[in-house]
Amino acid sequence: MGMLLGGSLVVFHCGGPPPTAPGQQTGDLRVAALDTLTIASIKIDLDDVRIGHFKNPHLLRDLVVGVHKVLVSDKVGAAASRTVEVVRNRQTDLVIQLLISGPYVGNPAPLFTARSVTGDTIDILKAKGKVIFLAFFEHT
């Protein structure tokens, strides 16, 4: 779709981020998900528009200066959203820890501490490398 403004044709692209106009101020945004050893790739949405699927970390170049909403997700379904300000002629770094909405088979257990029936404190970090059996139940 296009529109004629003062002798210039302005073209609008549906479903994509706003294009940079000539003379518009831009900056770069480096997006990284923590734990780059296990999270090889990430999906990035910018201002509610899917930008794409990229290697982790990824540099988005020439973004319009200002505040943007960034959603980062991985292939397992973990996701996190942040608001970030892109500054003119500079690189802004956004490092996100992806939050898993639920434990998935084959993934590490979420970090937690709990109290056993005998009153001892159980710390999952201290049990690293050991086989443990957890049974969750409701006491009424």
What would your notes on this structure say?
This protein has 140 residues and is mainly beta. The protein has a domain at 20-101: Immunoglobulin-like (Sandwich), CATH 2.60.40.10. The protein is 0% helix and 46% strand. It is built from no helices and eleven strands. The strands form four sheets. The protein has a four-stranded antiparallel sheet, with no helix packed on it. Strands 6-3-9 form a three-stranded mixed sheet, with no helix packed on it. The chain has a two-stranded antiparallel sheet with strand order 1-2. Strand 7 and strand 8 form a beta hairpin.
Main attributes?
single chain; 140 residues; mainly beta; Immunoglobulin-like; three-stranded mixed beta sheet; 11 strands; 0% helix; elongated; disordered N terminus
Rg is 22 Å
Low-confidence stretches: 1-6
Helix content: under 10%
Beta-strand proportion: over 45%
Distance between the termini: 62 Å
| The CATH class of the domain at 20-101 | Mainly Beta
Question: What's the name of the CATH homologous superfamily of the domain at 20-101?
Answer: Immunoglobulins
The total count of strands amounts to 11
Q: Mean pLDDT, as a whole number?
A: 80
Computed structural class: mainly beta
Order of helices and strands: EEEEEEEEEEE
The CATH topology label of the domain at 20-101 is Immunoglobulin-like
Q: In which order are the strands of the major sheet placed?
A: 5-4-7-8
Largest sheet: 4 strands, antiparallel
Shape: elongated
By DSSP (H or I, 4+ residues per run), the number of helices equals 0
